[in-house]
Amino acid sequence: MLKSKAIDGICIFAAFLALLFTIMLINGRALGLTPASRAPGYASRLFDSSKVHTIDIFLEDWEGFLCTAEEENYHPCTIVIDGESFSNIGIRAKGNNSLRLTRQYELDRCSLKIEFDHYTSANYYGLDKFSLDASFQDNSYMKTWITFDMMEYMDVPTPLTSYVWVRVNNQDWGLFLAVEEPEESFARRNFGNDYGQLYKPDYRSLNAENADVALRYTGEEFSRYDNIFRNGKFDVSDEDKRRLIRALKILSSGENLETAVNVDEVLRYFTVQVFVVNLDSYLGRTGHNYFLYEEEGRISILPWDYNLAFATYSLGMPDPINDSTLYINYPINTPASGEIMFNRPLYHNLMKHDAYFHQYHAYFDQLIAEYFESGYFEEFVEKTMEMISPYVQKDPTAFCSYEDYLLGADTLKNFCLLRAESVRGQLEGRIPATIRGQMNDKCAFVDGSSVWLPDLGEIADLKD
Q1: How far apart are CA 208 and CA 286, in angstroms?
Q2: Phi, psi for residue 33 in degrees, rounded to 5
Q3: Pairing of strands 84-94, 111-115
Q4: Distances (CA, A) of 27 to 18, 30, 103, 155, 196
Q5: Which residues, in sequence order, are bridge partners of residue 49?
Q6: Fewer CB within 10 A of the terminal residue: the chain, N end or C end?
Q7: Which top-rank group of organisms is this from (predicted)?
């Protein structure tokens, strides 16, 4: 009898624990618990951003790999991350103009994609793919690093990053920025195991209309959105296509936007996007360099590619560009010409609603107050430079000298601080916040003449 009672007690206690565990699983987010998919092992290993990591690449015909880099074909290699070896891993060069120009000037430095599951089902503590960014046209080594930090600060789903010292076949190759590629592991980490669809819209030709890259609704036919659907990161079903087209149709109407757009997240994204004056982006002439996420019929826009941010995109502009005062005071309400704005519904149609427009300004106020005026930004830059400067100094493939790096870092810091000062003035009404207003009144502009934009990095640096 006593034994029976003891067993009954154990069973009741086990049932209680099972019930408690079930409640915790159901209400984990409310209880502050983080699912394993949201805190994968790679986040605290390779993407521990507090230190410079080491990556060794072993590839038998490295010279042959570089000679055919523009073909962007994968090659098998062995990669050693912080002393841990992984074999039969896919590696290829990446980049458009950056890759073409580095080869044109016969330079050995290029960005890379590393795919663990290209040949096998391998992964790195849950990570399927990451890239090594070469800091092309970025003498500061920090354009992407700082922009992604701002995006993360504003709670935008953002790829993880860390600095890495890369060696190839036991020879130093240089300091690179490791960037989590937005694919399966990124989606699981940010959206859970039941994640939605992820696209990287991009044009085949810049001279085409590319309405789909601009996220414009142009009809129900799937073929009208080829620049989106052919760039899906996962298998794209007909139902996926119908959901996205439906979302773009609602977006084009300008009404009931919450049913088709993750409005709050999109506003936070555009706050940072406009601050960093990235003209090679959705709000620029090209309209690309972003990821599009869709889940249950609602879309959001995610950050990518900032080597030409901070007003260093020169398409159609004088060479060299150095109207730093113009870009430091770049208007936050109309961050592009009307011709572009009217064709960018994800920004334009949201800003036509007073509530969204005021929330956008509120997020700008938060970014300026908490990220810049608090001193956080300057401390962040100082700590970053303290961490990476010894590596930049010995970087054998750097696009610039160590002195140019120091100048670039200082220029980037000054640009951001002056930009923050201008945005504060625009929020308070002392500086016009539209293109038209600024054409008529430049009296209160923040003086940017101390900033020489080419010091941030330009193509001419490759010739040295």
Answers
A1: 10
A2: -90, 140
A3: antiparallel
A4: 14, 5, 53, 21, 21
A5: none
A6: N
A7: Bacteria
Give, in order, the Cα–Cα distances in Å from 389 to each of 3, 135, 397, 454: 69, 14, 15, 20
| Displacement of CA 21 from its chain's centroid (Å) | 36
pTM: 0.90
H-helix or E-strand spanning residue 53 = strand 53-58
> Tell me, what DSSP letter sits at residue 39?
S
For 71, which DSSP code?
A: G
Residues 79 and 53: their CA atoms lie apart, in Å, by 13
Contact status, residue 162 vs residue 178, Cβ threshold 8 Å: yes
The pLDDT mean for the chain works out to 91
- Strands (DSSP E) along 158-289, which ranges? 161-168, 171-180, 197-199
Q: In sequence order, what are the beta bridge partners of 121?
A: none
Strand partners, 129: 115
To the nearest 10°, report the CA torsion of 262, 264, 268, 270: 60
- Distances in Å between the Cα of 179 and the Cα atoms of 123, 251, 273, 458 are 15, 31, 18, 22
* Residue type for position 252: S
DSSP secondary structure string, 412-442?
HHHHHHHHHHHHHHHHTTSS--SHHHHHH--
Long-range contacts: 398-402, Cβ < 8 Å, 24+? 398/109, 398/174, 398/175, 399/107, 399/109, 399/134, 399/135, 399/136, 399/137, 399/139, 399/457, 399/461, 399/462, 400/139, 400/457, 400/461, 400/464, 401/464
Query: Beta strand pairing status for 75-81 and 129-133?
Result: unpaired
Q: Which phi and psi (to 5°) does residue 315 adopt?
A: -60, 120
Q: Which residue has the tokens 């972003």?
A: 290
pLDDT digits (tens, 9 = 90+) for 363-421: 999 999 999 999 999 999 999 999 999 999 999 999 999 999 999 999 999 999 999 99
What helix, strand, coil percent values describe the chain, rounded to 5?
45, 15, 40
| Helices 263-275/354-366 angle, 10° precision | 50
Calculate ∠ Cα 5-6-11, nearest 5°: 95
Per the listing, tokens 């439906």 go with 246
Phi, psi torsion values for 408, nearest 5 degrees: -65, -40
Residue 458: helix, strand or coil by DSSP?
coil
Helix (H/G/I), strand (E/B), else coil: 78? strand
What Rg, from alpha-carbon coordinates, does the chain have?
24
Report the pLDDT averaged over residues 169-187: 97
